[in-house]
Amino acid sequence: MSHHIVQTRDLYFTYPDGTAGLAGVSFLITHGESVALVGANGAGKSTLLMHLNGCLLPTQGSVQVGDLPVTKKTTAAIRRSVGMVFQDSDDQLFMPTVFEDVAFGPMNLGLSDQEVEPVVTGALQRVDALHLKDRPPYKLSVGEKRRVAIAAVLAMSPDILVMDEPSSSLDPKTRRELIALLRTFEHTKIIATHDLDLAIQLCPRTIVLSEGKVLADGPTADIFADDNLLAQSRLEKPLSMQNCPRCSPNSSPN
């Protein structure tokens, strides 16, 4: 089995206070796929993502990455294969400089200073952020922090990229630049997002979560064209698929 494959089987998770986070989630994502994970707030998206690299472990059911089940014993190996970019970059960036943040992962894998430098340089170049290498992360813009967080993940050479709301809090220009950047990545990608237009542009397949369950799983264009499904999952049609009143032949001029 390819190490790029991600599979969940009848996955349940209950938080310590008794709140149900996931209720029987099953899917298979294969090598090279780009898959959007969508749903209303509280649908279980972030909870599911945190199972994919062992931040959370199942109450019941299983998660598998390639041939490895995600367990306490396999967490270190799983995290070398599955790179996680969190919604809030401040949760990911904590070192005095950008260079040190991107170097943190590779150094913890045992790379020497001489080995780490080209890895960090290459990762920052990949996201067009090498000019930031000596800057403290807290002085960066939201978009710059997002690029550096992605570089920190790329420096670990993951097979799979898992991203939680990558376009949140970005201005329109920075959002477009991020989408263009992500298009260049050949990794298997799993992207949780409320930005359904981003999903259309990046992900041929979409999984819809509702109340911790998979409500739908299929081609993105088909899912976003299903008005009943969108209403049931408390989602709105992407802007790019909505009719523009000004462009409608039946619209009247102001």
Describe the protein's topology:
Blueprint: E1 6-14, E2 20-29, E3 34-38, H1 45-51, E4 60-65, E5 68-69, H2 75-81, E6 82-85, H3 98-108, H4 113-126, H5 142-154, E7 160-164, H6 172-183, E8 188-192, H7 196-202, E9 205-210, E10 213-219, H8 220-224, H9 227-232
Parallel strand pairs: 3-8, 3-9, 6-7, 7-8
Antiparallel strand pairs: 1-2, 1-4, 4-5, 9-10
Outline of this structure?
This protein is of the alpha/beta class and 254 residues long. It has helices at residues 45-51, 75-81, 98-108, 113-126, 142-154, 172-183, 196-202, 220-224, 227-232, and strands at 6-14, 20-29, 34-38, 60-65, 68-69, 82-85, 160-164, 188-192, 205-210, 213-219. The protein has a domain at 6-94 and 157-241: Rossmann fold (3-Layer(aba) Sandwich), CATH 3.40.50.300.
Can you walk me through this structure?
- The chain has 254 residues and is of the alpha/beta class.
- It has a domain at 6-94 and 157-241: P-loop containing nucleotide triphosphate hydrolases (Rossmann fold, 3-Layer(aba) Sandwich).
- The chain contains nine helices and ten strands.
- The protein has helices at residues 45-51, 75-81, 98-108, 113-126, 142-154, 172-183, 196-202, 220-224, 227-232; strands at 6-14, 20-29, 34-38, 60-65, 68-69, 82-85, 160-164, 188-192, 205-210, 213-219.
- The strands form two sheets. It has a six-stranded mixed β-sheet, sandwiched between helices. The protein has a four-stranded antiparallel β-sheet with strand order 2-1-4-5, with helices on one face.
- Helix 3 runs parallel beside helix 5 and helix 4 (113-126) packs across helix 5 (142-154).
- The radius of gyration is 19 Å and the shape is globular.
- The N and C termini lie far apart (60 Å).
- Mean pLDDT is 90; it is low at 246-254.
